[in-house]
């Protein structure tokens, strides 16, 4: 028994694929461009991170000569951990914004 080819379904699938590719490219651009700034618990270190997780800047707002290495290490680790979480949060938010209105495949 020969199967009928549904040309409309195929055209819709191609259009949907193109739309997904366009949205994905938009998402990738947004993730690379969006930056989030986080601070260490004592506010002495600021890290700027993209939604992709790339650290683009680190600013130290305190005189390092007066700080103990262990204390500075704790603050640095805390702010880098916060930056990782901030990047994840930003990615999720951007994903929802870009793909939120995209209808699911259910019902096809």
Automatic annotation (TrEMBL):
Superkingdom field: Bacteria
Gene3D superfamilies linked: Nucleoid-associated protein YbaB-like domain (3.30.1310.10)
InterPro entries, alphabetized: YbaB-like_sf, YbaB/EbfC
Pfam family, one: YbaB_DNA_bd
Protein name (record): YbaB/EbfC DNA-binding family protein
Gene source species: Actinoplanes siamensis
């Amino acid at each position: 028994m020969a199967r009928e080819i549904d040309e409309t379904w195929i055209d819709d699938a191609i259009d949907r694929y193109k739309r997904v590719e366009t949205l994905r490219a938009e998402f990738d651009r947004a993730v690379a461009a969006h930056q989030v700034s986080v601070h260490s618990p004592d506010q002495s270190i600021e890290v700027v991170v993209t939604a992709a997780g790339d650290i683009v800047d680190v600013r130290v707002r305190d005189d390092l000569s007066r700080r103990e290495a262990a204390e500075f290490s704790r603050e640095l680790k805390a702010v880098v951990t916060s930056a990782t979480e901030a990047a994840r949060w930003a990615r999720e938010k951007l994903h929802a914004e870009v793909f939120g209105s995209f209808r699911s495949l259910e019902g096809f």
